[in-house]
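User: I'm putting together notes for a lab meeting next week and I want to include a structural view of one of the chains we've been expressing. I don't have a solved structure, so I'd like a prediction I can at least talk through. The sequence is below, exactly as it appears in our construct file.
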Amino acid sequence: MKVILFGATGWVGGDIATELVKRGHEVVGVARSAAKVPAGVEAVAGSVHDPDFLHRVTEGADAIAVAIPARPVDGKSLLDAVPSLLEVADERGLRLGIVGGAGGLDVKPGGPRLVDDPDFPEAYKPEALSSLAALEALRESTTSADWFFLSPSAEFGSHTPGEATGVYRVGDDELLTDANGRSFISGADYAKAFVDELETPTHHRQRFTVGY
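Assistant: Thanks for the context. Below is the predicted structure for the 212-residue chain, given as structure tokens.
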């Protein structure tokens, strides 16, 4: 596949880029600073928020992967990019995969959501709520674009990178926990799940989650 990856210089974007390259896919990594794109990736400077650039860079591609922060950065959020992403994915028949957050997952059947838990860190709420807003925009879309939104487990990020195990479990809208009650996924195994979904689509126009 030829995959256009937005956010290739970020923590999770870097892991996704590495996984794609390892499997022999052609990767175009888009970032504000193309010099920081991982090895083996064609670096292109640009922005997902530029519709003209988005149409140019996706020509000849098979899929779009989006690993940018959901919260506003320089006045633009993931939600702002959703309409153009859906338009180009629909127009060109591209698979659209988006890195989501864990905050919108239910902690048990019927809720509440993780972000509504009293112990959910205030500092993470803007990211969680922005990610949820983008998911709702995807769900409300009337296009026929084939998208997926992959939420990680609660413990996920550069502060707790974990190690590659090569295994993971898949869930739908509920937070996954292991036998000890821990909700965790490493960056490498999340990236494996993300690329597995690109290669073998099983979740169409829906959110799902992965964990141990």
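A couple of points you could mention at the meeting. Residues 2-211 form a domain with the Rossmann fold fold (CATH 3.40.50.720). The chain is about 30% helix and 20% strand.

User: Perfect, that's what I needed.
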